[in-house]
Amino acid sequence: MQDQGLKLLYIEDNADAAADLTALLARQGSQVVWEMRGADGLRRAALEPFDAIILDRMLPDMDGLEIVARLRTSGVDAPVLMLSALGRAANRVEGLDAGVDDYLAKPYEPDELMARLKALVRRAEGRTHSAIIIYGQFECHVKARTAFRRNVHIPLSPKEFELFRYFMENAGETVTRDMLLRDVWKMNFDPQTNVVDVNIGRLRRKLEAGFDAPALETIWGTGYRLTRGE
Amino acid sequence: MQEPLPKLETTIDRPESGRSIFTRLVRGAIGLALVSLLVLFGVTMWESWNATQRSLSATVDTDIAGLVDIYASSGEEELLARLEDRSTLVSLEGRQARYMLVRPDGTILGGNIKQWPTLGAGLSEQGFLTLVDGTKVFARATRLSPDLDLLVARTYERDSTALLRLVAVFLGTAAVIVLAVWLIGRNAVAKLRQRIIAISSAFRAAEHGRDVDLPDSQFDDEVGELAYLSTRAIGRSAGLARTHRHMSDHIAHEIRTPLTHLDNRLVNAMRSLPEGVDPAMIEQGRQDIKSVVTMLDSLLDIAASESRVGDLVGLEDVDLSALASNLVELYDGSAEEAGISLRSFIEPKVHILGEPMQLTRLISNLLDNALKYVPRGGQVTLSIADGPVIEVRDDGPGIDEALRPLVFERFRTGHHVQGKNSHGLGLALARAIAMRHGMGIGLVASQKGAHFVIKPHAMWTSGEVKA
Q: What are phi and psi of B132, to 5 degrees?
């Protein structure tokens, strides 16, 4: 997958919000096509291929959830990230239930948005993982549920293995706390305590025990990234 | 521990009642008709029998009066001759005449009765009796002279037959009336039941968020009025829910959007800071924005949960035991790092009808609360039991006596909570989520620390205090 240069469609009625996000994504090397109205966005999505669609939820001419439904019925399969001011856990559940691929609340962390977009595009590219995922010094044996670093077995608890596997599936990319909460612990809200950091800390200690190079690096304010361990 | 059977908590969704007031109404009407007929039958039979008796008595007495005259005017022989004549007569009512003329010593002089009954002639007694040949008669004995007793009797077989016919008519009529009551009642009740069920179904549909259609409200009667008022109440409730939702969405939108712009500007400002300048102040500003957003979300979540009490939309069968185990696993590391022992007692397969995310948040809030305030070396315990009963207890500093009644109110924090970065909304949200799931939450008295209990309203006893 290309790390940069994504072609994105952004459907948002607020010009300031659109300008901010377009500038952010442009700095990352992505090309953004902005549509102010839901109907125009639908038309554009049907005419041009996009790597992903960023969609506001409360649009003046139609609800964002309705746009998702119409995109899917019209055969547009580009992944959709809903970027909405409706950020409560219940809103996120609604969005995901309605077929949105990911849901991010405003105000957002720029790095978090980029990480989510990349993860979405990666998933949409249909990258399937084999029974053994290898990244740098790390090996993840999915069926046997075992982890290795430079051929040394690392004993992990079931949940720690889930975490490790998630990092391996997103190897080299930033994984945010919200992504971990949502995909590993199935939670659509932030518990407001350091539970994720503590669990990552435990995994990190196990992955780094006996090795000099770090296994996980902290992306400040956003999340974590698995290193190659070299 | 014995594994309890899977059970779906239905404290919110009350099943349809198996007993029908309409069936009881029909049974009552049939019973009333039967009792009425029975009373009427009794009175009629009693009156008919009395009339028969009076008629027999009058007939016998008139006959005796005539015979006394004959005896007085013409003597014993003439009397015997007349008795012989009259013995062959049958009245229009079908009553046959029976006579006996005897001496006080028992010598039979004449008549068609073979044996003197128990009636006393001296007292002129009368009554119903059965003759030696088996014939049932009404008779009176009388003393014509000191040496002559007369017995006059009438058979009443046809009177009895008439009474039996009356019984048969009554029974037939009773059967027809009961059948008619049953048929008419069943028909009327079926229609009424259908209309009442339509109203109940409308309320149930509204609970599940479906549209309500009550055509019954067109009827101009009591049930029609009930249907009309129900439609209005359901519509008003649905309208309030919609308005609440729109209002919440707009508040969130109108506050979050400018905060997003502000946050983006702070991000740009941080990016354009000269090399070596500490961005801490700007970062603090961004944290403040996040704090306001978190508080806003909590307030809206509380309002949403409170407004949806009794609403079944979005509820599903949740394995509370699995959900709690997942949370214990998540919090285990945090507890260990904080030097706190996190223990759990989770009965398997405890189920509840609920929203998984909301229930996760409810338990998560209580665990967050406990881990935040329990000092190193302390203990936090999570219990899940059938009911369902959720308990979180700790041996921390507990909650001041004065604050205990207010602890579930919005923006309430204890003195020991100062500086813990709390808006004082966690327990208010926990209460709202418990209410949403048909449960109450309470702070139970404990010797040390705080002890929170969440269970269905019906399980709270009078001595316990729930919020």
A: -60, -25
Closest CA to B456 of B17, B5, B13: B13
Residues 108-127 of A with CB under 8 A from B: 108, 110
Chains A, B: CB contacts under 8 A, how many? 95
Domain parsing of chain B, residue ranges: 1-207, 239-307, 316-459
Partner residue opposite B257 with nearest CB, options A106, A159, A195: A106
Side chain identity, residue A64: G
Taking only the tens place, the pLDDT of each residue in A62-84 is 888 999 999 988 888 899 999 99
Give yes or no for a contact between B420 and B409, defined as CB atoms under 8 angstroms apart. no
Q: Is-contact B393 B447, C-beta < 8 A?
A: no
φ, ψ (nearest 5 deg) of residue B155: -75, 155
Whether residues A17 and B261 touch (CB distance < 8 A) is answered with yes
Looking at per-residue confidence, does B464 or A95 come out higher?
Answer: A95
Domains within chain A, CATH numbers bracketed: 7-124 (3.40.50.2300), 132-226 (1.10.10.10)
Give the amino acid at B346. Answer: I
Of B451, B428, B455, nearest to B441 (Cα)?
B455
Q: Give the pLDDT band (50/70/90) at residue B18.
A: low
Q: Domain spanning B316-459 has what CATH number?
A: 3.30.565.10
Contact B213, B241 (CB under 8 A): no
Question: Do residues B87 and B169 touch, judged by C-beta distance below 8 A?
Answer: no
Assembly ipTM: 0.80
Question: Tell me: the pLDDT tens digits for B103-155?
Answer: 888 888 888 888 888 888 888 899 998 988 888 999 999 998 888 999 999 99
Contact partners, residue A92, CB within 8 Å, separation at least 6: A103, A105, A188, A189
